[in-house]
Design brief:
InterPro entries: Tscrpt_reg_Rrf2, WH-like_DNA-bd_sf, WH_DNA-bd_sf. It comes from Deinococcus multiflagellatus. This is Rrf2 family transcriptional regulator. By secondary structure, this protein is mainly alpha-helical. The protein has one domain: Arc Repressor Mutant, subunit A, CATH 1.10.10. It is built from 7 helices and 2 strands. A hairpin with a 5-residue loop joins strand 1 and strand 2. Helix 1 packs across helix 6, helix 2 packs across helix 3 and helix 4 crosses helix 5. The two termini are 30 Å apart.
């Protein structure tokens, strides 16, 4: 199963936006993430629908934050993305009538539910402000421009 890195990518974008004065275009954000601007626009549209970002069209337009970093958790962003799968592992289902497979899957299902609940709880404890503060701690020796943070 391929890993879903949308949450990590969106958090990346939001931190860039928090450090930048004024709007950032989809092209600028896509370059920072090494992805396509269409991907950025699709994801940002979901965040705009939840009020986490704003967009302005036309010359000088782009994406800006629309939220207070202290009020938005990583779980909020995860939910805005449509709650993608948290775990890249799953059950074997080749022989659903097999009693052994049923016992194994029942045990694994409970472990998966427990792990997801723990991860969701942790995501609910971390705010965007926490991430921003950590970024500032690591880059205390200068301005946090797009070029500078990606040169490291």
């Amino acid at each position: 199963m391929k890993r879903d890195s949308r949450l990590s990518g969106v958090l990346h974008i939001l931190l860039h936006m928090a450090q930048h004065q004024g709007p950032l275009t989809s092209e600028m954000l896509a370059k920072a993430m090494d992805t396509n601007p269409v991907v950025v626009r699709r994801i940002m549209g979901r965040l705009r629908d939840k009020g986490y970002v704003r967009s302005e069209k036309g010359h000088g337009g782009g994406w800006t934050l629309g939220c207070d970093l202290t009020a938005v958790t990583l779980r909020d962003i995860y939910t805005a993305l449509g709650c993608p799968s948290l775990l890249a592992i799953g059950n074997r289902t080749e022989a659903p009538g097999c009693l052994v497979e049923q016992a194994v899957n029942a045990a694994l299902n409970q472990a998966f539910r427990d792990a997801e609940a723990l991860l969701l709880a942790r995501l609910g404890e971390v705010t965007l402000a926490t991430l921003s503060a950590d970024l500032h701690h690591h880059a205390a020796d200068g301005p946090l421009t797009l070029d500078r943070v990606h040169a490291s």
